[in-house]
Amino acid sequence: MGFYLNNSEPYSMYQEMVRNPYFVDKTQMIDEMIPRIGITEKYICVTRPRRFGKTVMASMLGAFFSKACDSGDLFDKLCISQSPAYEKHRNQYNVIYIDFSAVGDFDSYSQYISEIQTILKGDLRGEYKTVPFRANASLFEDLKWISLETGEKFIFILDEWDSIFHKDFISERDKKEYLNFLRLLLKGRTYVSLAYMTGILPISKYSSGSELNMFLEYNMATEKTFDSYFGFTEKEVDVLYETYRKNRTDTGITRQGLKEWYDGYHTRSGERLYNPRSVVAALTNDNLGNYWTSSGPYDELYFYVKNNVNEVRDDLALMISGEAVPTRIKEYAATSMRLVTKDEIFSAMVVYGFLSYDNGKVCIPNRELMGKFEEMLRKEEDLGYVYRLARASDRMLNATITGNTKVMEEILEYAHNTESPLLTYNHETELTAVVNLIYLSARDQYDVQREDKSGIGYVDFIFYPKYDRSLDAIILELKVDSTPEEALAQIKEKKYDLRFRGKTGEEPVYTGKILLVGISYEKTTKKHRCKVEISQVKN
Fold first, then answer.
1. SS (H, E, C) 185-226
2. Could you tell me if residue 341 is inside a domain?
3. 127 domain-assigned
4. pTM listed for this prediction
5. Quick one: which of 140, 355, 373, 480 has the most CB atoms within 10 Å?
6. What is the pLDDT of residue 538?
């Protein structure tokens, strides 16, 4: 057993996953990989956003195929054991497993790649002592000699192939050398039985020449193959949630909560996907929260936005309000550090999982990511009016709670007098976006729902106190070319306050005050008007 060759680490990693009470069996993917062994379509690259199970699936394949150890104790009870090919292929291959993100901390590309080559050559020469290796032969020559002398071949599992592109030391020349290394290692080599790579960046960016165009790439946006193996589907989350309920006597998470926090991605076939790492973390911790972790400049939202703040900030405001905005996806843009156009910026954010793409539009996928966008809005002054409105949201909430309509109107006028095209209010959507921004801080204390079903209609905004039931609940209705009085009349007529009452015979879910808020904008006078009334939940 070597460091990269037939290492038992993939087995140990996957064993930990299988033992997790929130494990999802996706071993059917192995059955789709087996027919690729030893044919021309043996080069496979799966690209997905971060935290979508790429390493889990890589370790699964390593544990199944590698001769390192008998993995029957893991797979005998899983779906793959029902395959006719199960026994024939389990633990029958020499596997070279390299996690390129865990190579080590180096200051240069030459150190990085030399470490990989030195260790792998040591593994090979230690295992195949009878092969007549040349003293100063290359890694590629050693592999070829092994194949010629013994007839043995290798499965290559290369996880996070693109992690080197995130290193500070990497140069354009280094990138070309690295791609040439992968080409020499894999392309046209008879010792390759299967080459499986994972990453975030689209490998097809580099396949226009002769480097890596032998790979078939499977991404989430355009390819159906393998799409159900990365991320959790609705049915899988249903099963996990039932496990969670059985494991705990007192549950703090609802099924709807999981959907709101971690759903929002889409496969090419149209199926909805949840972020798997966050779902498991939430169920394990019995807490819906933000489990998105940053690991470098590519993970910071503002890294993308700062390249062209003026072009993207209006769309950011719309997305914060829950709208999807049209974008032409250019997945290659993610490989560039110089993102310029809106399409390039949003495309890169899709590749890294910050945005979800579906039917020609991008949006913020869920509440977990919405929290990251909110953080950015509150601290980045370069976002102009968006930043200023977000910063004014504490004052707006306080004015609403105290019924100070003069201050509310003053803040709205301040919003309208900014440079934003949004605030022309050609559609109620733009007014909705502005309201989202000026009440941004309310999300810390309230569960803010837009167009929620209430009474005999849908209310524009409803603010549910999250933790402190002594807070006033808020029902907010918007009107363009109308009056705040008409907005309040609609709230009463359609009985929106019923949303705070329990079902017949039950206790009300909320018993405090309800603030009825009407906000209007008159296009001819370009004036906002606000009105606040107090109501009370009654049995």
1. HHCCCCCEEEEEEEECCCHHHHCCCCCCCCCEEECCCCCCCC
2. no
3. yes
4. 0.84
5. 355
6. 55
Over the stretch 45-103, which tens digit does the pLDDT of each residue have?
998 887 889 999 999 999 999 999 999 999 999 999 999 999 999 999 999 999 999 88
Least confident of 127-141, 243-257, 261-275: 261-275
Q: Are 50 and 172 in a shared domain?
A: yes
Secondary structure of 494-531 in HEC code, one letter for each residue:
CCHHHHHCCCCCCCCCCCCEEEEEEEEEECCCCEEEEE
Q: How many Cα atoms are found within 13 Å in the side-chain-facing hemisphere of 237?
A: 28
Residue 255 structural domain: 234-285
For residue 431, tell me if it sits in a domain: yes
User: Of 229, 251, 272, which residue sits at a domain end?
Assistant: 229
Distances (CA, A) of 189 to 182, 195, 316, 403, 523: 11, 11, 47, 74, 69
Which domain-ending residue is among 209, 229, 249?
229
Q: For residue 5, what are the β-bridge partners?
A: 96
Q: Which amino acid is at 474?
A: I
Is residue 153 within 8 A of residue 191, CB to CB? The reply is: yes
Res. 333: pLDDT tops 50: no
Please report the pLDDT score of residue 389 as a whole number.
81
